[in-house]
Design a protein that fits this description.
Helix content: 55-70%
Strand content: under 5%
Distance between the termini: 34 Å
Largest sheet: none
Oligomer: single chain
Radius of gyration: 18 Å
Number of helices: 9
Length: about 180
């Protein structure tokens, strides 16, 4: 795991710790077995809510990791024609989340995505659809970033469960099919 990846992971963990501490869930700080009992949390969240939260964090991390991998290796972006084609698919997709991307993430994750966006802007990468694409509600990726990432990097970091949630018209699915041997 690269330094940048550890930084983002630490930021997310620190944010979660602060939330737990504010809500009084502190037994995990001293429980040597890691099996802390959170009676307040158990009364507030049911297992489905907890599973959904964990799933969202995993998706978020996979998206951030994909973009960081691409940026850290200084790999070239996909051709602009392909980014445009991908963005056009995202605009029409029902999974294109509404609103500003920052509302979808915790403060540390928002800061990480903001840094990634700045790096992409430094590389002068954009599409004519940037003002219409936000966050993919299936994979939690900031679309303005992920449309520039080579598909191999994106697929390497995506879980089968997340892939199953993508809309059937998603460019990621069609590009994955193109990679399959005939």
């Amino acid at each position: 795991m690269g330094v940048r990846h550890r930084c983002v992971a630490n930021d997310v963990e620190n944010y979660q710790v602060r939330i737990c501490e504010t809500m009084g869930y502190v037994s995990y700080l001293t429980d040597p077995g890691g099996g802390a009992n959170f009676p307040q949390a158990q009364s507030l969240l049911n297992p489905k809510q907890l599973n959904a939260a964990v799933s969202g964090i995993k998706k978020l991390w996979a998206g951030i990791k994909s973009v960081n991998e691409w940026l850290d290796t200084n790999a070239p972006a996909v051709p602009s024609e392909l980014s445009e084609k991908r963005a056009a698919v995202c605009v029409a997709c029902p999974m294109n989340g509404v609103g500003d991307w920052s509302q979808w993430y915790t403060a540390p994750a928002s800061a990480a995505v903001k840094r990634q966006l700045e790096k992409v802007q430094d590389r002068k990468l954009s599409t004519t659809q940037d003002d219409k694409i936000n966050i993919c509600e299936a994979c939690m990726c900031p679309l303005k970033l992920i449309v520039h990432v080579p598909i191999e990097i994106k697929l390497k970091n995506m879980s089968p469960e997340t892939k199953a949630e993508l809309h059937p018209s998603c460019w990621q699915l069609s590009e994955e099919k193109e990679l399959q041997p005939a």
